[in-house]
Structures are given as structure tokens and as C-alpha cells.
Specification:
Elements: E1 8-10, E2 17-19, H1 36-40, H2 42-51
Antiparallel strand pairs: 1-2
Length: 53
């Protein structure tokens, strides 16, 4: 079942779009990363992700 109406954000580390998830319902405004992997690599990858574009 596809849900095209869900809000999306761009991950600040990898730059990929990600959609709202139920587990983020209470703090969607503070969500910045698409995955745990990106959250862990936020400091060393955030500069290279913006340089790559």
C-alpha cells in the first residue's frame, strides 16, 4: 500500500528524501536524519554530502 500523501524531508547527511513514519509522529519537526546510520555519521559526512552536489 503506497501512501503518497505523507510529508517528506531531506536527510541533512546523505541528501536523500525520506517520508514521515509513525514512530516520528510526536517529534517530526526535530527529525533530521533518514536513518540511524546517517544519525551516527552526522559530523563526518555532512560536509561531504553538500560538497558532492
Amino acid at each position: 500500500m503506497r501512501k503518497p500523501h505523507l510529508p517528506q524531508k531531506m536527510c541533512i547527511v546523505c541528501g536523500r528524501p525520506f517520508s514521515w513514519r509513525k514512530k516520528w509522529a510526536r517529534d517530526w519537526e526535530q527529525v533530521k536524519y533518514c536513518s540511524e546510520r546517517c544519525r551516527r555519521h552526522r559530523s563526518d559526512s555532512s560536509a561531504s554530502a553538500t560538497d558532492a552536489k
